[in-house]
Amino acid sequence: MEISADIHLTRHPDFVLDVEMTVQPQGITALYGSSGSGKSTLLRLLAGLERGTRKDRIEITSGKTVWQSEQIFVPPERRGIGFVFQQQQLFPHLSVQGNLDFALSRQHTEQNLEVNQVYDWLNLHSLLDKEISQLSGGEAQRVAIARVLLNGAKCIFMDEPLGSIDSPSRSRILPYLDRLHRNLQIPMVYVSHSYEEITYLADHLFVLDNGKITSQGSMLELCSSIELNSGEGDAAAVVIQCTVAKHDLDYRLSELDFEGANIFVNAEQYQVGDSLRVRIPAKDVSITTTRPGNSSILNILEVQIVSFEENSGPSVLVRLRRNKQFVLARITKKSLNLLDLQPGQTVYAQIKSVALLMESIDD
Amino acid sequence: MTATACPGPGRTSEVIDPDLVSLTITLKLAAVTTFILFLIGTPLAWWLARTRHVAGFLVEPLVALPIVLPPTVLGFYLLILFSPNSGFGKAWASLTGSTLAFTFEGLVIGSVIYSLPFYVQPLQVAFSGVKQDLLDAAATLGAGPVDRFINIVAPVCRSGFVVAGTLAFAHTVGEFGIVLMIGGNISGETRVLSIALFDHVETLEYGRAHLMAAGLLVFSFTLLLIVYTLNRWQTGRSSSLGSGS
């Protein structure tokens, strides 16, 4: 299901949402931006939960079906979509099972998802008999996600689904979303202001600012852009996609394949062949012009310099490329000049710390 | 200001205790009124709770009017409306062959209008408490408007319905002025309990008056007790729901 939207909507005199976009029919498409950027409004328009006024121009199509145009408005219940809200919006007069049954009896499509499979994925078996008021925020959100899956949605919209959940539970629920991402063919549109969540999950990225799309493309490529990271200070980081090559049980290290190079990290909970994402903070990457020998640092990559951050601060971000993926390094301006680094030059990136993005789920 | 404004108190010899007849009429009137209010007051309350239309600002005070208006004013206008000279009265007469004034049907119409705010307002408050997001969630799960109302709104607002129905019922039972104006005091037809009580006092039958007054007092108190207990229970429940999500 490919959703296209051409939207020009005025809200109060000072906010205009002016967007033309196509949601990829596979994977997770993230709408990222600060609060007030219009990302939630855009998502609600796509879902039909808002429809603008007669003065707005809103055209939304799903494949060949027109969802909204000047003459047509398909209400949300007939769009075949699922929507996960920030506040879970579980029905308070029904139990967990009752909420799930509500979705099962109103399926959008003939679903071939196994009910038990969904319960397994989201670890719901022990929650089924509970009342909604007995659930923690994280549990409630898992139920809300299951409710959407069992409903047979053809596309799942998520509006800051972790926004109302405290951070320990948040890191516990992200792996569940990742698990869905790995197991489902259903496209998702995910709205968040958390860069971290986006880098965990997204495949495609739309960055919104003040009602306009400022950049779009593959998440892995965009997340390494200097523009997106230059305001982040020490939080500047890239995410790279690797594949588990083998486990070294003696040292409890796993060897990941990253664009033909090796990265060592503790990832024994994954299986060989699993693809996973690794986060590399720019401040933990240093550059040498010759391959360093006898270093305690294990992760050394041969890379090519792509570009530098242009600013007047004492440090600069350097964007480095290895085949199709990128790494960022934050080095001092003095080093930049001493080493006489130039775009196109081949250098070695020493990576001091590598963090796996996803913890595994303790079922 | 006495019951003599209407056809005189019928002292017909009846086998059944006339007070019991009055009780039956009162309960029947309250039940029919509450049922009609359920049918027309529910959509009205829903519309008032959800609309952003300008008309809402006009309709809302109109619905509340019977709370502040002397029942005699309402009764007077209804009496005019019921008269065979008015369009409505004429239409009714040609349809049913009788007039509305001094009939049970006339009382029902009066009671529905008179008790309307007591049904609509608590329900409107309950409906306003249903968050739009909850309905949006139901919509995205494939539930259309009627489905949403029956399966989400109604059960979530269950105690609102009980409160509204109870208040409308009790208020109809306690009605006096408007009955006097449009219903009169016809035994077996329009003489409700409050009118019968008035008659007993007029004729100095204090024993009967006491029985009836105390009965109405206990009845009203019990109903209000139910209403307020439900209110407290609902508030406690919704606050615990709020902290859970």
Describe this structure in words.
The complex is a heterodimer of chains A (363) and B (245). With 363 residues, chain A is of the alpha+beta class. Chain A has two domains: 3-219, Rossmann fold; 233-238 and 276-356, RNA polymerase II/Efflux pump adaptor protein, barrel-sandwich hybrid domain (OB fold (Dihydrolipoamide Acetyltransferase, E2P)). Chain A is built from nine helices and 20 strands. In chain A, strand 16 and strand 17 (315-322) form a beta hairpin. The radius of gyration of chain A is 22 Å and the shape is globular. Chain A starts with a strand and ends in a 7-residue tail after the last strand. Chain B has a single domain, classed as MetI-like fold (Orthogonal Bundle). Chain B has helices at residues 18-50, 55-68, 71-82, 87-96, 104-128, 132-140, 145-156, 158-173, 177-182, 193-202, 206-244. In chain B, helix 1 runs parallel beside helix 5. Chain B is globular and about 65 Å long. The N and C termini of chain B lie far apart (58 Å). Mean pLDDT of chain B is 86; it is low at 1-14 and 239-245.
- The Rg value of chain A, from CA coordinates, equals 22 Å
What is the CATH architecture assignment of the largest domain in chain A? 3-Layer(aba) Sandwich
Based on DSSP secondary structure assignment, what is the total number of beta strands of chain A?
20
Number of discrete helical segments of chain B = 11
Helix content of chain A: 10-25%
Portion in helices of chain B: over 70%
Number of contiguous helices of chain A: 9
Architecture of chain B in CATH? Orthogonal Bundle
How many strands, what sense, and barrel or not for the largest sheet of chain A? 6 strands, mixed
Mean pLDDT of chain B: 86
Give the radius of gyration of chain B. Answer: 21 Å
Distance between the termini of chain B: 58 Å
Task: Give the class-level CATH name of the largest domain in chain A.
Answer: Alpha Beta
Q: Main sheet of chain B?
A: none
